[in-house]
Amino acid sequence: MSENKSAMTTEPIMQTYNRFPITITKGKGSYVWDDKGEKYLDYSSGIATCNLGHVPDVVKQSVEEQLQNLWHCSNLYHIPQQQSLAQLLVDHSFGDQVFFCNSGAEANEAAIKLARKYASNQNKKEAFEVVTFTNSFHGRTLATLSATGQEKIQHGFDPLMPGFRYLPFNDHEALDQLVQSNTCAVLLELVQGEGGVIPADQEWVNKIVEICKQHNLVLMVDEIQTGMGRTGSLFAYEQYGIEPDVMTLAKGLGSGFPIGAVVAKEHVAKAFGPGTHGSTFGGNPVVTTAGYATLNHMVTSDILPKANELSSYIVEKLQQFVDRNDDLLSIRGKGLLIGIEVKGKAIEYVEKARENHVLILVAGPNVVRILPPLTTTKQEIDHFIEKMEKVFN
Ligand SMILES: Cc1ncc(COP(=O)(O)O)c(C=O)c1O
User: Fold this and answer.
1) Apex CA 104: angle with CA 54 and CA 17, to 5°?
2) Of 8, 122, 189, 192, which is least surrounded by CB within 10 A?
3) H/E stretch holding 27
4) Is the CB of 194 under 6 A from ligand 1?
5) Distance CA 332, CA 315 (A)
């Protein structure tokens, strides 16, 4: 040991997470097991990532085959798995072209760069500002935490990156200030996830779409949490009846393999020419195989209509808790992105749930967030509700 190292240093991992005191070693479907063999119902889905449940067979088989052949290939060469996933994304969205990266924050970074480059290519060199919204969450890199409209995420990291302005979420009147001379884009979560499971108001979204069209601003939706079936449609924008110019994805796209994507309409996507952006691992053969298997399953099976049925089933049951308990204020969300606003501290409910072998999350200080895998069943929901009796009553 180096002499400068304190013998008291016990943790080799930087303490950036408040971890719960369990160690998960195995997962299958809606369940995980800890190192002591204890079984937990995982209604957090690895924070909206394991949308097909843990270790889904459709993804496992494809990835196992890919592991026999090629793990990594640089983006200096063609990667067929990447091509296939890009084509599938294009076939099932508004988009024409896709850029692959490794995480949600990286997808938003790329989208922010793309919007700036698009404006710059149109000779609007001063138009670099991206409008985002209060309570939003877009990631932890310097640009994406600057885009995030929450001071607690930004605290201690000054100076923030310039070029972001926050408007109050769901505030119709504030949209009068959306466009300034240097504005190039809007970045929006259609249901704010980390910020408290707050769906955007339809009329408000319509107004943003209209303003973006009028002023040739790039409309970018962050579907990192809401995408891949989480809100009941493949992408949340479909339910709003709108078409963005850019969409960012990550989390559920790879079923747990680290992948992010920027999907864009051609006129915007073209702003990224060779050498403008890149990533060593972005879209590597293994993660894009996982992404293809995941998305292909979502668009060829009945998982999405089933998830909608499950959503109505679980929300109806949760509503009964809210009706009975004055400390539970309301239920909100879309599909299987569910928030329960509580009077006290949300974390206390999450702790109690864990003690009862159920994993759920918070979304801000007073919202309990429930994210079942889309593959869950009514029987599992009944089991969940039974356990939650002890937590909510
Ligand atoms: C809406 C949204 N955007 C961006 C991110 C950042 O994604 P990542 O943690 O993969 O960087 C998250 C993560 O929670 C998210 O929910």
Assistant:
1) 70
2) 8
3) strand 24-28
4) yes
5) 9
Distance (Å, whole) CA 146 – CA 225: 19
pLDDT at 127: 95
- Measured CA distances, 114 to 54, 237, 247, 316 (Å): 33, 20, 11, 42
Look at residue 163 and give its three-state secondary structure. coil
Give the list of residues 6+ apart from residue 81 with CB closer than 8 angstroms, or none. Answer: 66, 283, 285, 288, 289, 292
Rounded distance, CA 94 to CA 35, Å? 44
Which residues on adjacent β-strands are paired with residue 187?
Answer: 220
Q: How far apart are CA 258 and CA 314, in angstroms?
A: 29
**Could you tell me which of 33, 111, 84 has the C-alpha nearest to residue 294?**
84
pLDDT along the chain (393 residues), means of 10: 64 94 98 98 98 98 98 98 98 98 98 98 92 98 98 98 98 98 98 98 98 98 98 98 98 98 98 97 98 98 98 98 97 98 98 98 98 98 97 91
CB atoms within 10 A of CB 17: 7
DSSP code for 74: -
All structural domains of the chain, each given as residue ranges with its CATH number in brackets, are 24-56+302-392 (3.90.1150.10), 57-300 (3.40.640.10)
Which tokens sit at 151? 């001071």
Angle between helices 57-69 and 285-300 in degrees, nearest 10 = 150
- What span, in angstroms and rounded, lies between the C-alpha atoms of 216 and 323? 46
Centroid of ligand 1 to alpha carbon of 227 (angstroms):
11
What secondary structure does DSSP assign to 102-113, as a single string? Answer: SSHHHHHHHHHH
Which atom of ligand 1 lies at the shortest distance from residue 192's CA?
A: 1
Among 50, 137, 144, 259, which residue has the most ligand 1 atoms within 8 Å of its CB, making it the best to mutate?
137
Q: Give the count of beta carbons closer than 10 Å to the beta carbon of residue 35.
A: 10
Q: Ligand 1 centroid vs 106 CA: distance in angstroms?
A: 9
Q: Ligand 1 pocket: which of 225, 253, 361, 371 to mutate (most atoms <8 Å of CB)?
A: 225
CA distance 194 to 309: 24
Q: Where are the alpha helices (DSSP H) in the chain?
A: 45-48, 57-69, 80-91, 104-121, 142-147, 151-154, 202-215, 236-239, 266-269, 285-300, 303-324, 346-355, 378-392
**How many Å lie between the centroid of ligand 1 and the Cα of residue 100?**
15
